[in-house]
Amino acid sequence: MLLLQIYTCYGNTTAGPFDPFSQVQCSVCHQMTDESLLLLCDLCDSASHTYCIGLGFTVPEGDWFCHDCTVCRTEHMNREMHADSDNENVTSIAEEHVTIFDIVRESIALWLTLRNMLPSLILYENQIACG
Fold first, then answer.
1. CA angle 74-79-83, nearest 5°?
2. Burial class (CB in 10 A: 0-12, 13-18, 19+), 124
3. Are 59 and 40 in contact (CB under 8 A)?
4. pLDDT tens track for 58-106
5. Neighbours of 32 (CB within 10 A)
6. DSSP single-letter state for residue 14
7. Residues 58 and 49: beta-carbon distance below 8 Å
8. Which of 6-10, 50-54, 76-80 has the highest mean pLDDT?
9. What is the rounded distance in angstroms from the CA atom of residue 18 to the CA atom of residue 4?
């Protein structure tokens, strides 16, 4: 329990338990009225009246998030989904079984293809040069 110590020119006094939410005001209308309809964001403790955010006089059940935190949560979830799909792609590529023999065979095949193309490339270059 937190007690509030108040210093005045007439001496020190002690108030009851300090309530950090006793002076909460709506972030939309900046009023402190209708405390029973004042919602606190479950992430940042920003306060809004139900009627100021379009819910009328109905207090929603469960968690409630202010507009800013809703946007941040959505962006965070989208980033996580993209990161998860990227990780799946990397995992599927890494799970392919590739041996050194496969790599060497592909390298030799590429070298043979280029070697077979080389005479025609030289001939084409000579034709352009002699023009």
1. 150
2. exposed
3. no
4. 898 998 888 888 888 888 888 888 876 666 555 555 556 677 777 778 8
5. 13
6. E
7. no
8. 50-54
9. 6
